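seq:
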Amino acid sequence: MDCNLDLKLKNGLRLYHVQDPTTKALRISLRGLAGASVENESQIGIAHFVEHMAFNGSTKYPTQAELQELITYIGGKSNASTGRESVKYWANGLSLYKEQIFEYLAELSVKAEYRQKDVNKEKKVIEQEIQGHLDSASGKQQDIINKALWPNQRAGIDVAGYIEHIESITLEKLEDFRNTYYTAQNFALQVTGDITKAEALDLAEKYFGHIPSGTTKIQIPIVTTNKDKQIIVENRQHLKQASISIVYPLAGYNDEYSHIDMVMNAILGQSPMCRLFQTLREKHNLAYSGGSSTGRYNSYGALYADAEVAEQNINVALDLMKKEFETLMNELAEDKELERVKNRIITLEAFEQESPSSIATFAASIYLQDLKIKSTEEFVQKVLAVTKEQVQESAIRIFSQNPKIVIMTPTWTQEQIEF
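struct:
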């Protein structure tokens, strides 16, 4: 693969190019910092709304159907997503149609024409998206967790916002948000697949060179975490199981202990051999699965330990999960266990780095998110160096904090929960 990870257009837009001669495919993505975190109180939901507006057409392709025909006719695919701290637009297809793919992504992401009729349409669509999210047990559970961990801040509200926020969004607000944040300083273009460096630069300049340079790179706001212990129970009578989530605060993705916490979390809940899976499923047959995951952002994050069990087994499951936390705090991990999870993490990273798009994404993240780890080699060496003592220290640091325990269940009340 030919990696060119330090290119820049005349307007300052960063270009991350990886040529892969073994494929006939081309993938392009435009990723930036214009996610939900930059919204003020009067803008909640607007970053996600801007992403929705992109699919309604541009001046050259004025309808949704005309714009989509540009990519679907050549057999390509595309989509977009908005996160808490980023937004991403992407398109892929055969490299034979590289010019059409570039044109499509530009028309979609930065040349969309905003019209009142489309604002009215998207309000209805997004309201249904929000309602569907809150109607699902998992969606509502995550909503409760966010509010509990990060109250009275943008991080405590779902990316899409709530229906009352959508109702207040106007055409003028959408245009102002895009004009303010959709600048070359705040985005990066990733081009990977069957395309040369010269072709990538020429087409990027042609289709994305018009983006305003901007004067200031977005600074992601600092988020504070509520450290109080909370047990929250929400009843959904149609459920046949209880969904348990025990959540502990984490620091942001540049935290000096993040790689150690990753190893500890892998021991706790990241494979069929992890402790939660072995305890909840294999030993006690309480759940189909049990595990843990982490989510990290610029200045904050969380570790989630999850299981779904029969309602009458809630307290049994909670006790078993708590004992696994305590064991990690009080006892050193076994050598074989530590080696196993390190091998897993490094193997997954190796597979990631076989993908040209993953290579470009990592390089773009170093710029956009100011990542402290600057290479996969550095990451691998850090993981390999983690000791059993450091894993124990990680468990003590995380599990000595007060958790948020959020349970979705048919009939039980908060008073019945023991933790």
